[in-house]
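agent> Task received from the user: take the single chain below, predict its 3D structure, and emit structure tokens. No templates, no multimer pairing.
agent> Plan: (1) validate residues, (2) run structure prediction, (3) serialize to tokens, (4) report one or two observations.
agent> Step 1 OK, no nonstandard residues flagged.
tool_call: predict_structure(input=
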Amino acid sequence: MFYNKQKGFSLVELMVGLVIGLLAIYATYRIYENVEANQRVAETVNDAQISGLYAIFTLEQEIGNAGAIIANTPNRNAFTNCDDVMTFPTIAIGATGSLPLFPAPVAIERTGNNNFDMVHVYYGTSPSNFMLLPVNNGGAPGTNDLTVQAPLGVRVGDTLVVDSRPCRVYRVATSIDPNVNGMVALTLDAPTEIASGASVLDLGAVGRRSFYVDNGGTLQMAVWQVANTTGAPGNNWSVQRIDPIISNVVFFRAQYGVDSNGDGVVDLWMNAGTSAGELDLAQVLSSGGTIESNDIKSVRVAVIVQADQPDRELANAANFRTTVFQGGGAGAQPIGPLTFSVGDGAFGWRYRQYETIIPLINTVWNPNP
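)
tool_result: status=success, residues=369
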């Protein structure tokens, strides 16, 4: 007789095979997990890099426009008598207050946090006139009427700045075409308080921007607009909107580039502030000194952006520390430099650091005599 003997795997063999299969699955999972984690870190770092580049691009565009139109007018010295008030109202949509008409296209304002500054930019955009407009007939007390000599006309919505103290800024509500003598009758958005013999400068649609980092780490751009109300004096501004630029910003500082020896080349970088070695723009504009307003030739900014997600490879690593504003080319020396340090604790984060120098092509438009 013949017996058909069937043989299979023993229990031990099955257990060994099961273990080998589990190890293979575990290895595959670990490879996938590592690849996915690395991809996630790479994506967040790329996002931080793109965010930083976009922030620098936006700042270069806005600061590069600083002083436009204002600087180009042959009467840029007309603002010698402007009040040098350096206080800005609260930055919130609808917040209204008096803004300084300081004769500088860019102002750097210190905050209570050493990692952040505020940068204010001021420029005009395409007015009909590039010269001072003589006031032929000042408005009667309590009225919004004004007559100026403007052969090219004045457009509705243009911003007019008065060149006499106290400096006022008004928005044109209505305007008629010039008559045969080039006179234009205007209605402004507030009682004029402008006497005959004074002059106004047409800035067109004024661009006024404030850059700052909010409590959530978002670099914001506040857009201001003249917002006078009936019965109120001129020079009232309101934040029309706040545009977010990038998030996860952990450092935003700026410095003035100063030509201290009059050769037209920046040889000193200075932080804003009132301490020794810092540049107090209000004092420079009001009293002058060794540094005058037209010695400010450029601005440089530094932005550090944190990645969206932590990197486990950096967990419990040493604190992140870096230095910004080291030197500046052409022999320029910094006041500083500045350092930034953050303790990441149990999580590790990657950062991207960006710096740029922005020349003030429209140079400071009210040089001290």
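agent> Step 4: summary for the user.
Confidence is low (pLDDT under 50) at residues 364-369.
agent> Done.
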